[in-house]
Design goal:
The protein contains 9 helices and no strands. The protein has about 260 residues and is mostly helical.
């Protein structure tokens, strides 16, 4: 019962973080400090990348150990399909909205911008749901710890992401509507987290594939979005240093408690 409560908490946490980030539009006239933003993104990226390895990829490899050499194909296909899905989303958005800018930069058209960010948040919800589904199935404390820390990592990243949605819109639509659009962009995360949870618990035999698929999503998000954004936010090494710190902290926790 307690593990179910932790899963619910972890799923809600990522949505609360997006809401919190969007709410900053009421308190700040300017964007978040560049160095602080870079530090936050780097730390979140390190936590997420480390949690991806320890909490998703390695458990998937262990779970597929009875497949022999077929596990190589399963792990490889899951990783590639996860990464390909996010690449496809990034390619589809500019095509649909007839823009050459990436999904998360479509700020000129408010509806397009909201849809693009919402699509971008769907995989993160799936990742959390699959991670907690694996933890509930296995019953291992380490798996639950990994899922919680993964949720915390995504939540940390969602705060500046919520700000990134609401702040560009405040001048055109006002604080209240900008906040509402930021919150709306994060609604899909708990919805798809529940979907991922159901997939994991109802299709337990496919769990190794689901975990590698989630790992592919997470690796692509971290490498393609979070790491470059942490460097862009501040032209210093603070993003890289924060990434390493986040990775090491997560690794230590996994080694001590996993």
């Amino acid at each position: 019962m307690f593990n179910i409560f932790l899963a619910i908490f972890g799923i809600l946490l990522i949505f609360i973080a997006t809401t919190l980030g969007s709410a900053f539009v009421f308190f700040f006239k300017k964007d978040i400090n560049e160095k602080l933003n870079s530090c936050t993104l780097g730390l979140a990226g390190g936590i997420m990348f480390s949690a991806c390895i320890w909490g998703l990829l390695l458990p998937a490899i262990d779970g597929a150990s009875n497949l022999g050499n077929l596990k190589i194909l399963l792990i490889m296909s899951g990783l590639l399909l996860g990464a390909f899905l996010l690449l496809l989303i990034d390619k589809i958005c500019p095509f649909i909205f007839k823009s050459k800018t990436p999904c998360e930069k479509l700020t000129k058209n408010h509806t397009s911008f909201l849809i693009a960010i919402t699509l971008h948040n769907i995989p993160e919800g799936l990742i959390i749901g699959l991670a907690f589904g694996n933890a509930l199935i296995s019953g291992a404390k380490g798996a639950m710890l990994s899922a919680i820390i993964l949720s915390v990592g995504i939540a940390i990243q969602n705060i500046p992401e919520g700000m990134a949605v609401s702040f560009p819109l405040k001048k055109d639509v006002g604080n209240k509507k900008a906040f509402f659009m930021g919150v709306l962009s994060g609604v899909v995360e708990p919805i798809f987290a529940i979907l991922g949870l159901l997939m994991a618990t109802q299709l337990e035999s496919l769990m190794p594939f689901f975990l590698t698929f989630a790992a592919g999503l997470m690796i692509f998000v971290t490498v393609d979005d979070i790491i470059p954004e942490s460097k862009f936010a501040s032209p210093t090494h603070i993003g890289g240093i924060s990434f390493v710190v986040g990775f090491v902290l997560m690794m230590i926790l996994e080694m001590l408690l996993g």
